[in-house]
Amino acid sequence: MGLVLDTNVLIRAERSAGAGCPTLDFSPWAGYGNVYISSVTASELLVGVHRATTQARRIKRSAFVESVLAALPILDFNLAAARVHAEIKATLYARGETLGANDLLIAATAVSAGHAVLTTDVDDFRRVPGLKVVSFDGPR
């Protein structure tokens, strides 16, 4: 099993660094195996670069995002993930529940690859059948 990072984990890492360079230490979750991001997370991070309100913020954010993209393997949203996505979405609809579109894509990518998701948004992801959810803020 590996660990797929939800976008919010990386955003928190970037914001917590203040003026310094963010460091990514996932050793507390080493028992889960390799760490990945989904292609959806890559897109969300890149959107953040484009939405930066100042040139200085854009440069700093871009450097962080590019370092993440270079350091972590990216899981594509492929046909296997699409099949899992469809099943999860139908199950949630049948229960009268929803999940944000990007979170659902990240969850489906993780489930199809047999990985857990590390997130600060535990309550939302716990609704996804078959997904192991790991809290960034809680017990490790």
What is the strand tally? 5
**Low-pLDDT regions:** none
Label the overall shape.
globular
How much helicity do the residues have? 40-55%
* Rg estimate, integer Å: 15 Å
- Main sheet, how many strands, which sense, barrel? 5 strands, parallel
Distance between the termini: 15 Å
Structural class call reads alpha/beta
Give me the strand/helix succession.
EHEHHEHHEHE
Rounded mean pLDDT is: 93
Strand order of the largest sheet: 3-2-1-4-5
Binned strand content:
5-15%
List the total number of helices.
6
3D architecture notes:
It is a single chain. The protein has helices at residues 7-16, 39-50, 55-71, 79-94, 101-113, 122-125, and strands at residues 3-5, 35-38, 74-75, 116-119, 133-135. It is an alpha/beta fold and 140 residues long. It has a 5-stranded parallel β-sheet.
Keywords:
140 residues, five-stranded parallel beta sheet, globular
Give the gist of this structure.
This protein is of the alpha/beta class. The protein is built from six helices and five strands.
